[in-house]
Design goal:
This protein is mainly α. 43% of the residues lie in helices and 0% in strands. The longest helix has 15 residues. It starts with 12 loop residues before the first helix and ends with a helix. It comes from Ataeniobius toweri.
């Protein structure tokens, strides 16, 4: 028995349904509204950033765990100290 084809509109059957809504130049407007009780979480770590030497030691341990290529390791260590601290806190689950 030969397999049956889905739909009966030929090769454009499904596409005509999608494009029927967009015949004009008017595109739908996407809007959003936040609830009044909704609060965004801060991306800043709650703990103060350690000194640069201590941070580099902590960050080095983290980068070693990630098993990155040399190119990516260099890119990680080239980041500013604040970004290193954010990454460290997010990976180590420090609030």
């Amino acid at each position: 028995m030969a397999p049956r084809k889905r739909g009966g509109g030929g090769s454009r059957g499904g596409l005509s349904f999608v494009f029927c809504c967009f015949n004009s130049n008017d595109h739908p407007e996407i809007t959003y509204k936040l609830r009044e009780d909704f609060a965004l979480q801060s991306m800043e770590p709650a703990l103060p950033m350690p000194g640069y030497d201590e941070l580099d030691n902590m960050f080095s341990e983290l980068v070693d765990e990630l098993d990155l290529t040399e190119k990516h390791r260099e890119a990680m260590f080239a980041l500013p100290a604040e970004k290193k601290w954010q990454i460290y806190c997010s990976k180590k689950k420090i609030p």
